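Training component of the fellowship. As part of building independent skills, the fellow (R.M.) carried out the full modelling exercise for a liganded target. The chosen ligand was 5-O-phosphono-beta-D-ribofuranosylamine. The inputs are recorded below so that the supervisory panel can assess the work.
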Amino acid sequence: ARIAILISGRGSNMEVLVKAHRAGVFPGEIVLVLSNKEGAAGLDVAEELGVPTATVPSKGRSRDAFEADLSNALSAAEADFVCLAGFMRVLTPGFVSKWEGRMVNIHPSLLPSFIGLHVQEQAIAAGTALSGCTVHYVTADLDAGPIIGQAAVPLLAGDAAETLSARIQKAEHRLYPLAVARALGGEPTVLAEDGVLLSVR
Ligand code: GRF
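Fellow's submitted model of the complex:
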């Protein structure tokens, strides 16, 4: 696969994917890290790692204009698989359908619970005892595509969104490379380590 990683911010999941790829966790080539936000911190991280980068600004642009430029950037890199990693722009059904089965996302909850934004606050408000993260195929329905894998962490008494987010992020960094490996033809995985229960189907 020729893999593009789409980011909007810090890019810690992107960094983990690049390093896991280099460690042989999944095949193919990471051909592009693309941000829809100018100056996203993750772009510097990608550059330091020697991965080609691009910025396609979404701010103030129509969905059609933005997605046309995004398509062009992905075509120019000859990408055929896309990982969304903290990419904060919702893609239209028309765009998503072109990538069906070839685009995955990581979401910081145990789907189907808590879709959309501020999901850590949603989990705390709901009083669940577990939270976690999900890697799923992207479909036209927000955060509702087929699940590839999930990792669970405890939600502790006194958790704030920040402490829970940090715990979930550690689980994300374990899950995402294994889920990408599975999406690209690798084996199912189950592991329980460091307070993280992880299952990739
Ligand atoms: C992650 O928590 C991801 O689940 C959410 O946005 C965050 C991105 O973090 N969609 P990073 O940019 O990968 O550090």
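The panel noted the following from the submitted structure. The CA atoms of residues 57 and 177 lie 27 Å apart. The mean pLDDT is 97.
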